[in-house]
Amino acid sequence: MRKTRFTEEQIVGILQEYAAGAKVSELCRKHGMSDATLYKWEAKYGGMTVSDTNGPMN
Description:
Blueprint: H1 8-19, H2 24-31, H3 35-45
Helix pairs in contact: 1-3
């Protein structure tokens, strides 16, 4: 399975930008990803906060 180039913390941050009202096309262009990736992440990580991830600070 291919590893992502984004950490869970980065993914949650991008999803928070999306939840705050950023347009999908602008987010995807800014971060270099497809809109399908964003929607897949939303299904998997939606509703999480950065503190919910198992990052290096936890």
